[in-house]
Amino acid sequence: MPALSGDKIRARLDSARLYLCTDARTSRGDLADFADAALAGGVDVIQLRDKTGALEAAGEIAALEVLAEACARHGALLSVNDRADVALAVGADVLHLGQDDIPVPLARRILGDDVVIGRSTHSVDQALAAASEPGADYFCTGPCWPTPTKPGRHAPGLDLVRAVASAAPDRPWFAIGGIDGDRLPAVLDAGASRIVVVRAITEAEDPAAAARALRARIPG
Ligand SMILES: Cc1ncc(COP(=O)(O)OP(=O)(O)O)c(N)n1
Ligand SMILES: Cc1nc(C(=O)O)sc1CCOP(=O)(O)O
Ligand SMILES: [Mg+2]
Fold first, then answer.
1. Which residue lies with its CA nearest to atom 16 of ligand 2?
2. Which residues form the domain of 43?
3. Is 49 an annotated catalytic residue?
4. Which ligand is nearest to the CA of 44?
5. Which residues surround ligand 3, an ion (CB under 5 A)?
6. Residue 26 labelled as part of a binding site
7. What's this model's pTM, rounded to 2 decimal places?
8. Which of 144, 153, 160 has most ligand 2 atoms within 8 Å of its beta carbon, as the pocket-test mutant?
9. Which residues surround ligand 2 with Cβ inside 6 Å?
10. What average pLDDT does this structure show over 39-43?
11. What average pLDDT is seen over the chain?
12. Is 141 touching ligand 1 by the criterion CB < 6 Å?
């Protein structure tokens, strides 16, 4: 179970503007310092998304425990990618599920009602479905630009962001994919008010400054 109630997690999600996905930084060995820096810079939600193949479940749980401590220090939400069992094990606030991950009702059976569940979407139809899907709380839409972080995923671009914004969903939603400081104004102009980034912070020389610069330009 997460430490916070579902209502508190959902209130924090509502005010979240900057969501970071990071791997476990196994080769650098600096996950705790990196997370502290990114969260100090204004990241609201941090997800462990380690697709390096280096982590078995125990390693993923260990890395998530490092992130959980950082989230507790900074009042941020801890997000697990793909795996409801791991989310349950670490008491995560958030589980993120893509179109090919386990179905939301199954995740809900494992996690109960307090944990926030998010969905990836890559078309207007998927986004509108996620906006009202029972058991889901938020969704992400993109990629806004092709990105090496998700090789082979077609980028629907900012037209998708514009279409979602004009549908004015009640649920929180985030734009994702290829977003950095230079591109952020175009994403905001397209109607997004929340973003997810990977490289813009994970590859920054100064992750705190990178997060701060992004956060300062997102209203709210
Ligand atoms: C916050 C957030 N948004 C989108 C994704 C992508 O999820 P998915 O499509 O399942 O792809 P993988 O990340 O699992 O490769 C995400 N992880 N987090
Ligand atoms: C993990 C992921 N999911 C996407 C989606 O469109 O669902 S795009 C993406 C990668 C985003 O990485 P970066 O900020 O480095 O471009
Ligand atoms: Mg996934």
1. 178
2. 6-217
3. yes
4. 1
5. 82, 98, 101
6. no
7. 0.98
8. 153
9. 21, 120, 122, 140, 142-143, 147, 149-150, 153, 176-179, 197-200
10. 98
11. 98
12. no
Pick from 180, 113, 190: which is nearest to 156 by CA?
Answer: 190
Burial of 24 (0-12, 13-18, 19+ CB in 10 A): buried
Asked if the structure places residue 1 within a domain, the reply is: no
Choosing from 12, 119, 120, 194, the catalytic residue is: 120
Please state the domain count of the chain: 1
Give the ligand whose atoms come closest to the C-alpha of residue 45: 1
Q: Is residue 89 part of a domain?
A: yes
Q: 174: exposed, middle or buried (C-beta count within 10 Å: 0-12, 13-18, 19+)?
A: buried
Model confidence at 1, in pLDDT bands (50, 70, 90)? confident
CATH number for the domain harbouring residue 168? 3.20.20.70
Give me the interface pTM, i.e. the ipTM.
Answer: 0.99
Residue 206, annotated as binding a ligand: no
CA atoms within 13 A on the CB side of 2: 28
Instruction: Note the pLDDT of residue 220.
Output: 93
As given in the structure block, the two tokens for residue 148 are 């090496």
Q: The tokens of 65 are what?
A: 């425990």
Residues 213, 218, 220: CA angle, nearest 5 degrees: 130
Digit-coded pLDDT (tens) for 84-131: 999 999 999 999 999 999 999 999 999 999 999 999 999 999 999 999
The reply to whether 16 falls in a domain is yes
Q: What is the pLDDT of residue 23?
A: 98
Q: Which of 17, 25, 49, 212 is catalytic?
A: 49
On whether residue 25 sits in a domain, the answer given is yes
